[in-house]
């Protein structure tokens, strides 16, 4: 309540009438009254006076009325500032979300904040405004990865605005950036089959829940968020398939969707003989403590992505690798090898649960270039 009163004192002071923020008591009516100066009344379309049983009720009612008007004229940058504290809290968490949140803050403040797009009234922003903004980004020659960071940040701001009642639709999420030309992300080194074999052996020797989780990830083309959400009821051992239709988000919340947030993201993953052996070890170790989850501790906590990455980094260091791998490199390895074996773009898109066809096409193109270069080298050597 004190915060609201100070905000009102500031508004009255800026209007040049700080002394008029005073309450009078009417014994006959048994109520408090506050008269609103004309300048403030006209600016926020308020009533001439407010009446209530207590000063606190008047302050709350007046603040809510003024706040509604302020929110109607709030800019994108101002809304971002309101949401920023929650984003900063994310950067203090012990999970991958800390790095993601830091990237989102940096991306917005570097490319959106202070621009004409950021200065627009939030609830009035429409398709043409997004088009102008992304055309500007395109001209700045930023990478596709960077563009996706901006889009994700804007998506979250629009969800925040939607929760505040400023908009009914997340216009940012509906806007596609696939038609814009951004620089390709710099290719990251993919592990070799030999390196992968050494990593799997290292993980199994750890004999820990995180060790088995990392080993299983190497043998299944799952995202780490999907691995966390894996239940024994999703595993069809007789058919040799796993149904992937859920995920655990950065907040540790179990979600009834995958990364794509729709039914297209649901897909089946084949269980390799090696993955089956690891699953049987996990089952024997009884790591599925409760609720049918493959990885869920006695306290009900899911695996931490950062802890998985810490185990991977420790393995790379112990094995003397110069490269630094992460949880996502398991999927990158599987996709690269699938493309090298001749798997088609539509088949890869379905198998890996990608919404964007370009993602699958990227691996197919890399594989084609690799085979072509190998043939050229053989001809040269001959």
* SS-derived structural category: mainly alpha
Listing every helix as H and every strand as E from the N terminus to the C terminus, the arrangement reads: HEEHEHHHHHHHHHEEEEEHHHHH
Spatial separation of the terminal alpha carbons: 83 Å
Low-confidence stretches: none
**Any idea what the shape is?**
elongated
CATH architecture assignment of the largest domain: Orthogonal Bundle
Percent strand: 5-15%
The largest β sheet comes out as: 3 strands, antiparallel
Mean pLDDT: 85
Number of helices: 16
The CATH homology group name of the largest domain: Intergrase catalytic core
Q: Can you identify the CATH class of the largest domain?
A: Mainly Alpha
Can you give me a brief rundown of this structure?
The protein has 382 residues and is mainly alpha-helical.
Keywords, please?
mainly alpha, 3-stranded antiparallel β-sheet, 16 helices, 8 strands, 54% helix, elongated
Overview of this protein structure:
The chain is built from 16 helices and 8 strands. It is mainly alpha-helical and 382 residues long. The chain folds into 3 domains: 2-72, no CATH class; 76-174; 193-373, hpI Integrase, Chain A, CATH 1.10.443.10. The strands form 3 sheets. Strands 1-2-3 form a 3-stranded antiparallel β-sheet, covered by helices on one side. A 3-stranded antiparallel β-sheet has the order 4-5-8. Strands 6-7 form a two-stranded antiparallel ribbon. Strand 4 and strand 5 (241-244) form a beta hairpin. Helix 10 packs antiparallel against helix 12 and helix 14 (328-340) packs across helix 16 (357-381). It starts with a helix and ends with a helix. The mean pLDDT is 85.
